[in-house]
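Q: Give me a protein?
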Amino acid sequence: MGAGRSSHRGARLVWSEVSAPLRGGLPLGALCYSPGGPYHPEETISASHFPSHRSRYRATVRLFRQLRHDLATPLSGAALHLEVACRRLSQGGEPDLKRILENVRMGQLEVGYASAMLDVLGEVVRAGDEDGAPFPLAEAVANGAAQTAASAPRGVSVTPPEPLETPCVFGWRRQMEQAVADLTFHALTSAQPETSVTWQVGNGAGEATVSLRFKGDLGDTRPEQLFAMTRDALGQSRGLGLLLARWTVECHGGEITAEQAGDEVRFVARMPLSRQEVPS
């Protein structure tokens, strides 16, 4: 039987719902063989919002590819430092303990970087319900911002979105709330004193828009690198929150950008509306 063809006349390929092996990581549609019966195009995808699951799959694959690439560097560095330490120990004469300990310490630091990156996998596994559902975006943003508003530095306030626009997106509400909480936390730690961290939600042209504004400075970090993995000194990294926030937006079929506009930093995320809200 050739690839993509069936030897049974009248057989059809349909999408059926299965449990995802990795919670929060893989699509719920699986291509299954169903013998007999005519082929009906409308039955090809049984999940009414399969594109959202496909977006989540693609975003997770992209995240794992980045992790695979970024993990190779610290692990290779750790192996190199330990190899050099072993060679120095095997040399004749009095071993240079200071340099050997330095190699071991550097190897430990590299393993620490790798361990921090692997924390991402735990977040992926815990991120939201498997099936997904339409949810009001403004409410999810307000709830997510409230999670970190209490820890705001003195003089910095958090302004939730006004309930004027209430677009709905299809996806995983708890995952979106956590992404908003992570973005809010970054803004609170980066904002200038006596300023406000402001969220806004908009709706138009078949997509929902979420923006975060605060007085601050991106520094030397290029906007396209802000949501990537960093190798800052341990304990000084900005953490994994921005990386996972980008993954969340991409899981919902959207994209997130950052820009410096004068003395103001802006994060803007755009996501497709739930099919129930897209005009026909």
The first helix runs from residue 50 to 90. The two ends are 41 Å apart (CA to CA). The longest strand covers residues 196-204. Residues 133-272 form a domain with the Heat Shock Protein 90 fold (CATH 3.30.565.10).
